[in-house]
Every structure is written in C-alpha cells, then in structure tokens.
Amino acid sequence: MAQGGYVVTQPGGAERLEWVASAVGQPGPGQIRLRHDAIGVNYIDIYHRMGLYPLPLPTGIGVEGAGFVEAVGSDVTHLSIGDRVVYAGGQPGAYANVRLIQADRAVRLPEEITSQTAAALFFKGLTAQYLIKSAYQVKAGEWVLLHAAAGGVGIVALQWLKHIGANVIGIVSTEEKAELARAYGASHVIIDKEGNFSGKVREIVPQGVDVVYDSVGKATFTASLDSLRIRGMMVSFGMSSGKIPPIDLSILGAKGSLYFTRCTIAHYMASRTQLEAGAADLFSMIAGGIIKSGPVTNYALKDAPQAHRDLESRRTSGSLLLIP
C-alpha cells in the first residue's frame, strides 16, 4: 500500500474506514516518526469509529502499534533512530504504515519481545494491569467475574489473575471460547448470550463475587450487579453491547451497598510515570512466561474493515493484528 492511513470522516460501520494516501513529514518537538511492524486492533477502535467515544472528525483510527523509530524530534532524548518501540493511547492514527506520535507515549521494547507480541499485548496488557492492580486490587483467594473471558483483554486478565491466585468465573458466548477460557486460567466458565448469568454465578459462589470486570455494558449491567457480594465492586470498562442507560444510584444500596466505577485506560496511564510502571510490570510478566498472547489473527493493513467486522461479530478470540 502507498504511504498513508485509515481515517473516519463520518461515524458508522466498518465501511466508514477510508484509506487516505499521504506523506509523513519530519517529527516536530516531542514527536517521533514510527514505521509500524504490527498494529493492534482493539474494541476502543470500534467505539471511535461508531462515535460512541466521540472524536473530532475527520480522525485517524487505532491506538496501539509497534515498530521502529525512523526520526526523532529535536527535544526527544529517551529514544533514538532505530529503536524498537511500542505505544498505546494518544491521538488515534495507528492504522497506518508510518505515522508521527508523541514520544512520551512510546516505550522501548526489550530484545526478547517481538513487535508482533508487543502489538498483540500492550494495550490489552496495560488494561488488565490497571483493572487488576488499581481499579480493584485483586488478592489471592478472591472471586472474580470476568466478561468476554476469551477476548484479547480477557485472556491476558485470566493469566494474570491465575498468577495472583484468584478464583475466576469467565463469561463467554460459545463452547469453543469456553475451552479457551479454561485453558488460560478460568476456574469456572458460563456460556451466556442473553445476560441471564447471575443465578449460575450464585450457584458457584452463593455469597456473590468480590469484583466484576464488565466490558459488555448494557446487556450485562443488571446481572453483573446481581452477581456481587455485599459491598462488592463493579468495574465497567467497555460497552460492546451498548451504553448503560441512566440508573437510579439507590440501586447500588438496594443490592448490597455496592461500589461502581467506570474506567478508561487514558486516566490510569495518563502520565509518563504511570505508563512506564505499567509497561515494566507487563514486560516482566511476558518475559517470565506468565502472560502469553493467546490466539492471534493477522490481517493485512488493507483489510482493516474486515478485522472490525470480525471483531464486532464475535468471530474472533484473542488478539487481532494489522500487518503493513
């Protein structure tokens, strides 16, 4: 493909991803020019494309990639030409073969971690890291309910939670995904497509789970609350089924003085210090063999619209990559 990238000029379906050829110039102050080896596809990309997380239009798309530094801005001191790096967050625009990014969002890759492994795990791994260690600090022996347990974040979170010693109930949509969730550390698996899982959770843990990690949103919100123990924590970090409608907050009291938080990675990895700490934690887990990427599906960069369709339709498990 000619040098350029995908843009969205109007919110909507995967057909709204438009390839625009363009030249990428020299990096300005605080920037680097990066040539991608691999680009991570994440559900937040779909939220951006659909306008559920509104961005000024037109906009680039994609928040994660790995590759090597082609040029650095005059004031960039922590990176050099030729360095292999991975990044997550910042201005969307990863669906491109070459791009400019803010240098403070890029982290140098250890030699033992390939670009494809990094692109498959960085955004999802940082998400799992802040969910498990910051949004709610999971302890050994606690009970966790994890939605989309065979998805990209789910597979990383399962491995991390198993390492901690937590008991995890994974929610998945098919038997094939149930097998995958068990393989990566789920103690119990519930197959559910209708949002009617709370009774099954209570059969496993009569008192309710300590924490729910819910990236589904509208379809699972009520049953997630009903799965929690008294004073349990509901951590919402996505809305693949749609936005949670407005609620009467007294429901949290009626269901057991529950806690609720709606998280985004942008706030948990906002500073360079937070990003470096999260990356170091994740890299150590990868290097130690504790975290593996799970299934990875590669698409050519030109096939980004199909990758979105496959992800939205639940036809995939694990991580999706675009290869320039």
From TrEMBL:
Residues 12-322 form the Enoyl reductase (ER) domain. This is Quinone oxidoreductase. PANTHER family: QUINONE OXIDOREDUCTASE PIG3-RELATED, QUINONE OXIDOREDUCTASE-RELATED. It comes from Acidocella aquatica. Transmembrane segments: none annotated. Keywords: NADP, Oxidoreductase.
